[in-house]
Amino acid sequence: MSATLGPLAALKGYWKNDFFWCEQLGQAFEIEKVSARWPDSDVSNPDWIFVAEILKEDGATFFGFVNSKERMAFVKLREIDGLGSRFAATAVRELGLSGLSALLRGSGSASTFSAKIPGLGPKTLEKIRTGLKQKPKEFEFLNYSAE
Fold first, then answer.
1. Quick one: pLDDT at residue 33?
2. Which residue, 7, 4, 3, 145, is CA-closest to 75?
3. Could you give the residue ranges of the DSSP H alpha helices within the chain?
């Protein structure tokens, strides 16, 4: 893939064989579907997708989200020390905005969530909780998120 989308993009297109086909750019992008509830789409009913592009030495990775708040949560979670893109994507997918909000408010403990979430153990959840509590203003949007 030669073209980049930029760090944050909103595209309209449709899913075909695990690729997102974007008509505006005339090409397909391999995008990881992060959102837990992803609507089906086809050529006659294009979807909007909110994309975060992560650039590394070995290339670009694209993460797709159903809405901009999920993408914002992903971007902010990546800023927490020691929490990379994969853990941030898993947290958004498995906890959702309401679960992240519960961690921020302190109404859910790491042990409450850990039994239910593959890929996120108690230590990672505690790291997320600490990161959320260290920068509450940056994660304030979670308090107004409805899933």
1. 75
2. 7
3. 68-78, 85-105, 110-114, 122-134
CA distance 134 to 119: 23
User: Which tokens in the block code for residue 51?
Assistant: 């994309």
Provide the pLDDT confidence category of residue 77 given band limits of 50, 70 and 90. very high
Separation in Å, CA 108 to CA 35, 37, 97, 101, 129: 21, 22, 13, 9, 9
The CA radius of gyration of the chain, in Å to the nearest whole number, is: 16
Instruction: Dig out the tokens for 111 from the structure.
Output: 């042990």
- φ, ψ (nearest 5 deg) of residue 21: -95, 120
pLDDT tens digits for range 58-76 = 877 888 888 888 999 999 9
